[in-house]
Amino acid sequence: MVVMQGSGVSKGVAKGPVYFYQRAAAAAVRLDAACFEEEKRRLDAACEKSVEQLNALAEKARKEAGEDAAMLFETHAMFVEDEDFTDCMTAALEKGCTAERAVEAAGEQFSAMLAGMDDEYMRARAADIKDVARRILSNLMGIAEGGIDLDGPVILAADDLAPSETLQLDKRKILGFITRGGSGNSHTAILARTMGIPAICGLGDALKREMDGCVAYIDGETGRVAVEPDERTLAAFEEKYEKQREMKTLMETMKGQKDVTLDGREIMVYCNIGSPEDVAAVQANDGQGIGLFRSEFLYLASSDYPTEEEQFRAYKQVAAAMGGRRVVIRTLDIGADKQVGYFALQKEENPALGMRAVRICLSRPEVFRTQLRALYRASAYGRIAIMFPMITSVWEVRECKQACRKVMAELDAEGVPYRRDTEIGIMVETPACVFVAEELAKEVDFFSVGTNDLTQYTLACDRQANDLGRFFDPRHPAVLRAVKMAADAAHRAGIWIGICGEMGADLSLLETFLAIGIDELSVSPAAVLPLRAEIRKTTAGACTLERLKC
Q1: For the chain, which ranges sit under pLDDT 50?
Q2: Domain range spanning residue 246?
Q3: How far apart are CA 323 and CA 290, in angstroms?
Q4: 491 a catalytic residue
Q5: pTM, 2 dp
Q6: Distance from C-alpha of 326 to C-alpha of 140, rounded to nearest angstrom
Q7: Is residue 187 annotated as part of the catalytic site, yes or no?
């Protein structure tokens, strides 16, 4: 038995085989082939497997998202079998290249050719060719799609996972996460909380590759991992595992209940999501709405700027699925820890303080315009609210609103339907935003506090660092006082305020948030029912602001 201790970042107990994440290599390693026939056989097999995968994805997309989504995968399958493309790969093999290098060369040649065409549609296909080449290359190199090459569910192990990697995981195969690095604010942790599965980070070098395939029990509350546990340890984990199952059964009784305190105060309990796939978890956990849809998933999961049509389909899918319940969509929030290669952002000494989020949108108006057009078009199919992140000044909000007005005028001229009463809000996540909250509240329909970044900037603590320990304290009186200042400004202006950071799910802070006057809590889907149970046994009028004191 090997016992490891890390930091629990998503509660729950899980048991299953350890499986180390398979990360795709950046490029083919070998350039020269030993045998043309062998390389051709390998290439043909990889192409055949790629077509099978793409056809399966097309069927899945057709059932879940409609014909437009299915057509994307069908088009990719056609590219794999395109005669010019396959001839180009074969020609590279004949020159002595490996199958891997042949795929890379053909992908580079065809994507460059398409990108240089005058026709906008054909230029957009350059990104499709890159994706196709990447898929064939992954199959050649034995890289599992979604990072997991097993049929059964696993406890996924990794050094850590980048945002783009978490988006591509086959979530149906994951029982829990264990990582060497990372923190409670890492994207692995956020994904785990969204999925409602246990996760442990910060295991360091104790997590070893040779554990791959071993049976492990993990406890996301205590941060404890036991690999091939002995009978005594196994019994303790099994007892906790059974209690977890009983609690889940009990929580089911909370479905359909109102989110109202004992003295009648109603709270909006919404969910944070990262992709349209997460809507199923929102519905399964009875969330009232979506308080944070991280739209950057579209950019992180793409090899080029997502088109207006691609974004529109995603936003429409979520809005329609929520059946008229509010869906707050945060505009593009990349930069800092979420880097996207094709944006070609300059390297910064401190990217958390650099070109990110709304600063990118206002600096690249065409990128911003494309997203706003998609959002407003999708608003015709549900109740979408638009939220701008990383606000520090009134002029930023006014420029964002002006961009919205321009898009609305365009859609009017084109006769495209949209909701004129679409709400506009901002994220409160910087001290500057708090200090000018009175003025900002007059410009928007709602505030949503991003407690992760607000803590980072208020306490001067890097939210991604896993070694700051007690110095990164979201419950610090300075952070809570900042939330109170923003709430007071919001209510004086007659607008609502919510919390969409991880603190919203902290049951020990519920009474403090009620005392502060928070109207909405947006949490991971798995946190909805426990939060509802706590709200229903709390008296709002008896809550105090004791935590705001030093």
Answers
A1: 26-31
A2: 2-23+147-251
A3: 11
A4: no
A5: 0.69
A6: 44
A7: yes
